[in-house]
């Protein structure tokens, strides 16, 4: 027991160091402050770190809910994952992220089933953002129109700021009318911030992928080539 007036010892993290498929599965037994709920979560939380585009995407599963958020670095030890519903949910989310990384489309039904309860317009903005084609962008004004509330650009920007599942809900594809727009709560004026650089890197990555979606036209051979030469 601690002496009177002495602070309680912080719980130690437990587990065995391990890497799985170039992703870091993480378990922590200490208290964890969620960046989404802004509450202290005292129970262990399943977490997965996926490095990409110079940053780290962290997936967290707790109480049957999945959340993702961007970090500049992992900042955690790599530990053996536990078994259970949250671990299975985490792996399901990781499968969607890997599909996004590979340039494939994210299953709309699977994504909708992972979204948390929210207001009707907020949910409509999330789903509208998910329908933006890879390699393309739209403005907050256009997103508000697609979500059913023309002129509600500020509310659309707020919905993107509360995005629970980036990049599956690709809020990085939503930009301002006069520039790149903010990202991860960082104003666009801070061009040197890692979050703004990350948004640019994600868009460049997707645009590079999109340039390879259409295969080159087959070359004419034989009679077809002869007809072209005589034309």
Structure in words:
- With 231 residues, this protein is of the alpha+beta class.
- The protein folds into two domains: 24-101, no CATH class; 115-210, Arc Repressor Mutant, subunit A, CATH 1.10.10.
- It has seven helices and eight strands.
- The protein has helices at 85-101, 108-114, 120-130, 140-146, 153-161, 194-210, 223-230, and strands at residues 24-28, 32-33, 40-41, 45-52, 55-62, 65-71, 138-139, 174-175.
- The strands form three sheets. Strands 1-4-5-6 form a four-stranded antiparallel β-sheet. Strands 2-3 form a two-stranded antiparallel ribbon.
- The level 1 CATH classification of the largest domain is Mainly Alpha
Specify the biggest β-sheet: 4 strands, antiparallel
- Low-confidence runs: 10-43, 212-225
Strand order, biggest sheet? 1-4-5-6
Strand content: 15-25%
Overall outline: globular
Would you give the CATH topology of the largest domain? Arc Repressor Mutant, subunit A
Q: How many helical elements?
A: 7
Write a brief structural summary:
By secondary structure, the chain is α+β, with helices and mostly antiparallel strands. It has helices at residues 85-101, 108-114, 120-130, 140-146, 153-161, 194-210, 223-230, and strands at 24-28, 32-33, 40-41, 45-52, 55-62, 65-71, 138-139, 174-175.
Features:
231 residues, alpha+beta, Arc Repressor Mutant, subunit A, 2 domains, 4-stranded antiparallel beta sheet, globular
Write the layout of secondary structure elements.
Blueprint: E1 24-28, E2 32-33, E3 40-41, E4 45-52, E5 55-62, E6 65-71, H1 85-101, H2 108-114, H3 120-130, E7 138-139, H4 140-146, H5 153-161, E8 174-175, H6 194-210, H7 223-230
Parallel strand pairs: 7-8
Antiparallel strand pairs: 1-4, 2-3, 4-5, 5-6
Helix pairs in contact: 3-5, 4-5
């Amino acid at each position: 027991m601690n002496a009177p007036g002495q602070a309680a010892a912080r719980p130690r993290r437990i587990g065995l160091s391990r890497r799985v498929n170039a992703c870091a599965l993480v378990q922590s037994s200490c208290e964890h402050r969620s960046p989404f709920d802004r509450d202290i979560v005292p129970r262990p939380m399943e977490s997965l770190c996926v490095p990409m585009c110079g940053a780290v995407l962290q997936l967290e599963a707790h109480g049957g809910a999945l959340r993702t958020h961007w970090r500049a670095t992992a900042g955690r030890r790599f530990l053996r994952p536990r078994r259970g519903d949250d671990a299975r949910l985490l792996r399901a989310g990781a499968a969607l992220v890997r599909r996004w990384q590979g340039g494939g489309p994210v299953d709309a039904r699977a994504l909708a089933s992972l979204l948390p309860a929210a207001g009707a317009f907020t949910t409509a903005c999330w789903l509208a953002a998910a329908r933006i084609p890879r390699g393309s962008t739209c403005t907050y004004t256009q997103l508000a129109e697609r979500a059913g509330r023309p002129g509600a650009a500020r509310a659309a920007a707020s919905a993107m700021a509360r995005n629970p599942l980036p990049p599956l809900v690709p809020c990085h594809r939503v930009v301002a009318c006069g520039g790149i727009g903010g990202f991860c709560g960082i104003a666009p004026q801070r061009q040197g911030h890692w979050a703004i650089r990350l948004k640019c890197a994600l868009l460049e990555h997707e645009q590079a992928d999109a340039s390879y979606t259409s295969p080159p036209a087959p070359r004419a051979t034989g009679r077809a080539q002869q007809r072209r030469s005589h034309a």
